[in-house]
Amino acid sequence: MAQLSKIEWTEATWNPVTGCTKMSDGCKNCYAQRMAMRLHAMGNKRYKNGFDVTLHYDLLTLPLKWKKPKIIFVNSMSDLFHKKVPVSFIKSVFNTMSRADWHVFQIVTKRSDRLAELATKLDWPSNVWVGVTVESNKYLHRIKDLQHIPASVKFVSMEPLLSDFPNFSTKGLDWVIVGGESGPHSRPIEADWVRTIREQCVTEKAPFFFKQWGGFRKALNGSVLDGQTWKQMPSITEKQPQLI
After folding, report:
1. Neighbours of 116 (CB within 10 A)
2. Is pLDDT above 50 for 241?
3. 124-133, pLDDT tens digit by residue?
4. Start-to-end CA span in the chain (Å)
5. What is 71-92 written as a DSSP string?
6. At 63, is the secondary structure helix, strand, or coil?
7. How does residue 184 score in pLDDT terms, banded at 50, 70 and 90?
8. Cis ω on the peptide bond leading into residue 160 (within 30° of 0)?
9. Ramachandran region, residue 106 (left: φ > 0; alpha: ψ -120 to 50; beta: rest)
10. Is the Cβ–Cβ distance between 2 and 12 less than 8 Å?
11. Beta-strand relationship, 175-178 and 54-55
12. How far apart are CA 33 and CA 38, in angstroms?
């Protein structure tokens, strides 16, 4: 049975890898680490190693058993391109995604350097979407790495959004996701940061998805960030209807 997801931009999760290590600002209050440690304390066998990187070979072919088409977030509890995940294992994940062509698979990584390094060694079927997390303008280089990946859909997750992006361009991107940080000790998000990104998406006709304000919301004066505004943007499902 598929693990249903509460993440608004996907439908289910598949975690052949669990565990990770912190590497940049967005990792400070990692939700996956909190959840992993809680599951470890509850005795969940998948998290017997806590948040250490762990490969679950028995889950490699799990999506082949899900007959109903789904949009699947790959490794919501890890990073597929972590240095501790062998290339052979990554290739096995891609093999399953290629065989399960009735699903859409969404991969998100902060390790864009390894993604770029391995891209030519992997097959990229059209049902595999790849994205990078860019939580502040210090990490725009991840988008440059992403632009060279031969995936059918490339997207950026700006979550948790921690800075403005005055020089942001959507060139080469098919989707932009923005969200504030949630959970304990969440850091602030400012409405003007979101406006700047959205305006750039409108200008360059890039699909935009705003997920949440998170733990802090700056007051809006006659908000331009309303539901109707989002609906004016083309959705990712309109861009790739054959995959849904």
Report:
1. 18
2. no
3. 999 999 999 9
4. 19
5. EEEETTTB-TT-TTS-HHHHHH
6. helix
7. confident
8. yes
9. beta
10. yes
11. unpaired
12. 9
Return the structure tokens found at 16. Answer: 């052949």
- Residue 46 is given by DSSP the state G
Q: What is the SS3 assignment for 229?
A: helix
CA dihedral 38, 43, 44, 48 (to 10 degrees): 90
pLDDT in tens, 13-56: 999 999 999 999 999 999 999 999 999 999 999 999 999 999 99
Backbone Cα Rg of the chain: 18
Its pTM surpasses 0.90: no
Asked if 43 and 80 count as a contact pair (C-beta separation under 8 A), the reply is no
Q: Exposed e or buried b for every residue in 38-62, given b needs 16+ CB within 10 A?
A: ebbeeeeeebeeebebbbeeebbeb
Task: List the structure tokens of 180.
Answer: 């504030």
